[in-house]
Amino acid sequence: MDPHLLRTFVTVARLSSFSGAARELGYTQSAVSQHIAALEGDLRTELLTRRPVHPTPAGVRLLEHAGPLLLRLDAARADVLRLAAAPPARVTLAASPLAVGPRLLAALPATGVTLRVLPPAEVPAAVATGDCDLGLVDGPAAPSDPLRLPDVAPLSVTGVAEEELAVLLPAAHPFAGRASLRLDDLADARWIDAPGVGLPLTAARASVRYEGTDLHALCALATAGHGLALLPRTVAAAAAGSGAGAAVPLSAPRLVHRTELLAPGTPTGAAAALAARLTAGSPV
User: Fold this and answer.
1) E strand or H helix at 258, and its extent?
2) What distance in Å separates the CA atoms of residue 180 and residue 185, rounded to the nearest whole number?
3) Orientation angle between helical segments 29-43 and 3-15, nearest 10 degrees
């Protein structure tokens, strides 16, 4: 299967437009139509309806495969080019919002670093495809267990930090005075669904979906009563410090907030120096 044809198909499906895909990819509309026709001929099935432009059931199934395949190809290209290139003088670091904490701030040099804050799900791909030199990603895990990260490329993963978790809730919440909470205590609670910031524990129904990456906005929503948020204990305590909310430690299940450093193989140059500072003294 020709990856150029596959990339054209993904673009047309995402934009629901042959002309839009042509503009984005720099092709003529006729060339885009030829790409789709060639791919459909190769697979011997229709992948897109034309009016309106929409994936067929076969197209939907192909899209499930196409994203990981194209990402893996981009990662392979970036990995090979990286070996042939000189170490970059400037480091681009991707970090999920909750990974931007005291350890990172203390490790950042005065110059030579670009910090790019991304949703946690986007950090591994940013490192794998060469958009960023290093990545810091976070999530919930059992103590000393690694995070469950997507298999986008053979990245090196180093545990950087682990911290207790706490539930951030309004000061007037009935559980605000508890010494600790179990998730089972909150089976009927309303959570804030914040995939770009918060930890992905939203099994209970969500009252609000927040699609930004601003941690302060998430905390403000929680303390204002729009839903609960599960956060690192220090973050939750800081948000509750004004008196508007309460940070109650999570006692069960036994989980921690874990931060990991991602790198494409062995970092070199300025990236290696920053990686060493980020992992210095790390017990995990």
Assistant:
1) strand 256-263
2) 10
3) 110
Q: What are phi and psi of 137, to 5 degrees?
A: -130, 150
Token pair in block for residue 185: 């205590």
Give the whole-angstrom CA distance, residue 222 versus residue 100: 20
Alpha-carbon distance of 175 to 185, in angstroms, equals 9
- CA 194 to CA 96: how far, in whole Å? 12
In three-state secondary structure terms, 113 is strand
Give the C-alpha distances (Å, rounded to integers) separating 244 from 70, 90, 168: 46, 41, 10
Distance CA 257, CA 245 (A): 20
* pTM of this structure: 0.84
Q: Identify the CA nearest to 44 among candidates 56, 30, 26.
A: 56
118/130 Cα distance (integer angstroms): 15
pLDDT tens digits for 199-227? Answer: 766 544 678 899 999 999 999 999 999 99
Rounded Cα distance, 219 and 261, in Å: 25
Question: Mind listing the pLDDT tens digit for each residue in 47-86?
Answer: 999 989 999 999 999 999 999 999 989 988 888 887 777 6
Is residue 169 within 8 Å of residue 175, measured between CB atoms?
Answer: yes
- Compute the chain's Rg from CA coordinates: 22
Question: Which CB contacts under 8 angstroms, 24+ apart, belong to 16-24?
Answer: 16/52, 16/53, 16/54, 17/53, 18/53
| Contacts of residue 70, Cβ cutoff 8 Å, sequence gap at least 6 | 3, 6, 7, 10
The 8-class DSSP code of residue 130 comes to T
Cα–Cα distance for residue pair 39/207, rounded to 1 Å: 43
Q: How far, CA to CA in Å, does 127 sit from each of 12, 28, 67, 113, 118?
A: 26, 32, 16, 15, 11
